[in-house]
Amino acid sequence: MSKPIEHDYIGLSVQQLLSMESSDSNNKKNGLHLKATELRLGLPGSESPQSEDHDHNVLSLKSFVSGAKRVFSDALDGGGKWVFSGGSGGGSEGLFSPRSGGNNGGNGLSGSDSGLGSLVLKDGAATKPVLVQEKKPQVAGGSGHGTGNIAPASKAQVVGWPPIRSFRKNTMASHPPKDDDDAEAKLGAGCLYVKVSMDGAPYLRKVDLKIYGSYKELYSALEKMFSCFTIGQCGSHGVSSRDGLSESRLIDLLHGSEYVLTYEDKDGDWMLVGDVPWQIFTDSCKRLRIMKSSEAIGLAPRAIEKCKNRS
Amino acid sequence: MESSELKRSKDSPNSDESAGLSSFPDEVLERVLSLLKSHRDRSFVSLVCKDWYNAERWSRTHVFIGNCYSVSPEIVARRFPNIRSVTLKGKPRFSDFNLVPQNWGADIHAWLVVFAAKYPFLEELRLKRMAISDESLALLAVAFPNFKALSLLSCDGFSTNGLAAIATNCKNLTELDIQENGIDDKGGSWLGCFPESFTSLEVLNFANLTSDINFDALERLVGRCKSMRVLKLNRSISLEQLQRLLVNAPQLAELGTGSFSQELTFRQYKELECTLSNRKNMHTLSGLWEAKGIYLPALYPACTNLTFLNLSYAALQSSELAKLLAHCPRLKRLWVLDTVQDKGLEAIGLNCPLLEELRVFPDDPFGEEIVHGVTEAGFVAVSYGCPRLHYVLYFCQQMTNAAVATVVQNCPDFTHFRLCIMNPGQPDYLTNEPMDEAFGAVVKTCTKLQRLSVSGLLTDLTFEYIGRYAKNLETLSVAFAGSSDWGMQCVLGGCPKLRKLEIRDCPFGNAALLSGLEKYESMRSLWMSACKVTMNGCRLLAREMPRLNVEVMKEDGSDDSQADKVYVYRSIAGPRRDAPPSVLTL
């Protein structure tokens, strides 16, 4: 039996799309403005690699086959300009963040935020917009599975599909999925939580880097948090008990020689905390680790001394 | 000795033997038959002869009714006078996915009224997909003084007020098992309705209720119910509260934790770890809502003898799962979310050689983002490490024919194979071919297959394979598949043990429907929705087969001649009288 030619929502067959997208600058000529309808994540004005995206789009359309009843909304008109051409967006806030509202004035997002929000979050199962939509995760996941791992053009809501009971659907919907492995730093409106681990401690903590203005503040906060581990015993509310212990035995974690504070930056490298200005540090820090000095072999001996001498 | 006697009698029911048997005192026969538990065995026994029929009916204490409309409560009560335990299933399974109208039926009340009169000594009631009102629960609570066990799964129509009535009045309650239901949760005060003198509870499951529970009442209840062996908490219970409860319940065999994510101090963590350790009796663990990976190590000591681990509400990462599984050597059943990804499934293959059942649920099936989930690679990885696998439920974004073929080659003993490729009608993503060969491999290799759910792009070839090879198949679920009537005809013509067939969004029409005319009486039910069946086809079926109930549900605004949803089932009770106006009985 012959397979019917699959048509995407625009009414073009897959073959037609394939031939069109092979020449990437032809889109504008054909009046399709496919690139213009792409929903992308990235710093304002940045370009993401093109060729594999198109393949993804095509594949996703191909996989979008069904003779079944579907509920589509009309293709959005006027929804063309999805690319964020925000001008002078500050720092890393060019990312699609519907909650951030007017957080960074100049990044061109704020105006379209509400519009975006209302388009994506249309209520009711029936009106999920059908777009040639492709989103890049904000941190390039190393776990890409190749061509198979793309969302279809849209997860149009078919009643009762996939077959999951209501309880499970409602439960998972009310709790957003966890960050994936790579996104250790959670970005949101005005806070920057990073994990802090300490060698030997049974559990990690999280700190909001945004509430500290300097390294000194960070150090004292971390000392307070992790004091109980070096003493070996906590009071019932987790604060270090001070009975009989002198000041000098309390953590002078980072000023002493036993531990070194390091952080993982955006490239995945482990760096010594303190080298770069505070602001740059908070922008690039993904997680913190209080490392035993004995393990800090890779760091220059000078660095450890630097640590000791830092006030 | 008794069983061989039974066997001899069953094998040669000729007049000589039965003359000898009829002098066998009824009481003895009943006593012997009372040892028979399987309702299928009992069915066979009752067909031997009239004496055996009577002995069987008097000795039966548990009745299982797979379709509440196949029989009426009066008929049941007339045939079985001594029932103490009833299991009833109501709505078609697709009602779980909102395909059945709300007021469709399957109301328990009429049954309870009859039971109250005929089985005042009723002890157990287990309901699945039935409609129950608070009024019914109140009746249940007072009409049966010896009532012991209530289990509700996928039911709806009641609220926590009904639970309060049960708690207040059932003095001998041993089991209250409220699984996933459409319950109107009005608050947790119902738990405080158990009187202070009440100590008999052994099973308490309220994991799927959402509101805060009266913790003091719960703590006292757990403390005084010394025989409690199953405790499944809901999300409102914190880690600290869990620890306090566990201290009073050292003998728990099944534990469902509450929320596993509260900020703990070091000491609290240690206390929890201590309380969870040395639980040699614990074989089932679930809950772990919002589980924080860092606290999972507290569970490790409790996992030594675990056979069933339900992580389907804990969005774990692969590394967290791997570390946990290293402590679960005896695991036989595992439910996870696809957040563990293929790496997590590899860890399953490495750590769980005794695994028999795996269910992988999607964490975010309707999300707009690119979801990673699990792929064919993870499925194959599990199959290499878990040769004893016989039950799988697998939600994925992509699959290949080759991968499925490899899986069943590694695990030929599948009895339940439920594969859900979440994008309807999606082909093999590598070859772009239909997934026919995948399911062909399944039915050819897994000769013991009882239940099959298919997905992906499928042509009639899949159904040819099923009809030809799936000789033990009892339940088949089909969605967005097939090319023509021929597919369904193959199944109806080929699967001798088929009992339940549910189909949605397939191009099967009247020819297919009518090809199963003789088959449907040997089946429990048939469901067809969004197919090509017409009202005329259904009318013809109803006319030809008077012992079948043919029900059609119309959707608003649809063509008059189309039969949007068809539900066909055999019944000795005749057409039902409680159908809502949207359901037409032909």
TrEMBL record, chain A:
Cellular component terms per the entry's GO annotation: nucleus
Which Pfam family name is an example for this entry?
AUX_IAA
Keyword line? Auxin signaling pathway, Nucleus, Repressor, Transcription, Transcription regulation
Q: Primary place of residence?
A: nucleus
The record's subcellular location field reads: Nucleus
Q: Which lineage?
A: Eukaryota, Viridiplantae, Streptophyta, Embryophyta, Tracheophyta
Q: What does this protein do?
A: Aux/IAA proteins are short-lived transcriptional factors that function as repressors of early auxin response genes at low auxin concentrations.
Could you give a single Gene Ontology term from the biological process aspect?
Answer: regulation of DNA-templated transcription
Name this protein carries in UniProt: Auxin-responsive protein
Q: Which InterPro entries does this one have?
A: AUX/IAA_dom, AUX_IAA, PB1-like
Q: Report whether Transcription regulation shows up as a keyword of the record.
A: yes
Automatic annotation (TrEMBL), chain B:
Source taxon at top rank = Eukaryota
Q: Where in the cell is it found?
A: Nucleus
Here the segments flagged for biased composition (Basic and acidic residues) are 1-13
What cellular component GO annotations does this protein have? nucleus; SCF ubiquitin ligase complex
Q: What is its main location?
A: nucleus
According to the UniProt record, where is the region Disordered?
1-22
Q: Where is the COI1 F-box domain?
A: 22-62
Pathway(s) annotated for this protein in UniProt: Protein modification; protein ubiquitination
User: What SMART domains does this protein map onto?
Assistant: LRR_CC
**Claim: Transmembrane is one of the keywords in the record:** no
Transmembrane intervals: none
Q: Name one GO molecular function term.
A: auxin binding
Question: What are the alphabetically sorted keywords of the record?
Answer: Auxin signaling pathway, Developmental protein, Nucleus, Ubl conjugation pathway
Transport inhibitor response domain: residues covered: 81-127
A GO term (biological process) for this protein? auxin-activated signaling pathway
PANTHER family, alphabetized: F-BOX/TPR REPEAT PROTEIN POF3 (PTHR16134), S-PHASE KINASE-ASSOCIATED PROTEIN 2, ISOFORM A (PTHR16134:SF148)
Protein name, UniProt field: Protein TRANSPORT INHIBITOR RESPONSE 1-like isoform X1
Q: Which gene encodes it?
A: LOC111275109
